[in-house]
Amino acid sequence: MNTVEVLDSHLAYTETGEGEAVVFLHGNPTSSHIWRNVVPHVADRARCLAPDLIGMGSSGKPDIAYRFADHARYLDAWFDALRLDRAVLVGYDWGGSLALDLAARHPGRVRGVALLEAFVRPMTWAEYPAQAVPLFQALRTPGEGERMALEENWFIETALRATNPGISDADLAVYRTPYPDPASRRPLLQWPREIPLDGEPADVRDRFLAYGGWMADTPDVPKLLLTVEPGSLISPEIVAWCRANVAGLEVEGIGPAGHHAPEDRPDEIGRAVARWLARHRLTAAPEAGVRGIAASEAAASEAAASEAAASEAAASEAAALRAGAGEAAAPQAGVREAAR
Questions:
Q1: What parts of the chain have a pLDDT lower than 70?
Q2: Distances (CA, A) of 178 to 22, 186, 193
Q3: Is residue 330 part of a domain?
Q4: Number of independent structural domains in the chain
Q5: Rounded distance, CA 17 to CA 6, Å?
Q6: What is the DSSP string of 87-130?
Q7: The predicted structure's pLDDT at residue 285
Q8: Centroid of chain to Cα 174
Q9: Cβ–Cβ contacts within 10 Å for residue 271, how many?
């Protein structure tokens, strides 16, 4: 893992490959580890970066509220620290929301966005997955939420395998390690309290509405929505809403998977993202990277020079033909003059 200082703390991140930046953003309660089997499908054509969000994974745990705005602020600082000016963003769960929020606030920094199992707009409790409603209402209740998320470590010990039972003991241990005590789990508790349901919290609702406007108004920015079956956050109704309201959108199904889909379908996700990147020329060709880009540019320059040389030769040949035609015409003109 790499680390970089941001604001009053640090963010940890993985990095592999060369070329245009593709940033992978995780959700709650996972970390950059969730992208471990997705990134290899893209790393042959891009510089792939996957940060641990502030307070999560191997990143620092400053004394902050861990609200949505806090995560966005630290993510902005990470982009600044790494000088990421033009990136493609790939996100699931809250990582998808942070990707869209960043794109809406800094449109010049984002070249494309790919999402799966993410919050694409504010929701109502009636729209929220029915089986999750009582649990998330409890998590949003003072005292009860602290018992579940902080004392019982509910997100790690129960929720992960409830949605994705195939997570191995070794991988579950990776997700568990950053949260050894109740104080370390505060970021996990705050996330469910940030979901804008029935209009609350209003500040997060407003940010979701703002990035909804960005999605509608940017047909020139490629967007990819990957869907899973049965889907929790991305239901068929949400897919229909996206088709009607998101400009420049492509939708692709990747098969059955739990909410933390990169655990279940990493190859399908990686291949789908790689194809999308290629279709829109958002990254270099496979196995190109920076050197490949330079080689392509050199080849293009050589081709342009050859084309210019060919054009010059053709022009010279045409001039010679015109001159020859003129010389041939001169005696004939003389004959005609003599005849007169």
A1: 287-340
A2: 25, 11, 21
A3: no
A4: 1
A5: 23
A6: EEEEEEEHHHHHHHHHHHH-GGGEEEEEEEEE--S-B-TTTS-G
A7: 76
A8: 23
A9: 15
Residue 265, domain CATH:
3.40.50.1820
Note whether residue 302 is domain-resident: no
Say which residue the tokens 């970066």 belong to.
49
- Residue 239 covered by a domain: yes
> What gap in Å lies between CA 11 and CA 55, rounded to an integer?
9
Q: What stretches of 147-258 adopt beta strand conformation (E)?
A: 223-230, 249-257
Whether residue 327 lies inside any domain: the answer is no
Bridge partners (DSSP) of residue 123 are 197
Angle at the Cα of 117 (from 179 to 203), degrees rounded to 5?
Answer: 75
pLDDT score at 255 = 96
- Residues 6 or more apart in contact with residue 9 via CB below 8 angstroms: 54, 59, 60, 61, 62, 74
pTM of the model: 0.84
6-52 tens-digit pLDDT? 999 999 999 999 999 999 999 999 999 999 999 999 999 999 999 99
Residue 70 confidence (pLDDT): 98
Domain that holds residue 24: 2-287
pLDDT (0 to 100) of residue 287: 52
Among all residues, which ones are annotated catalytic? 93, 117, 259
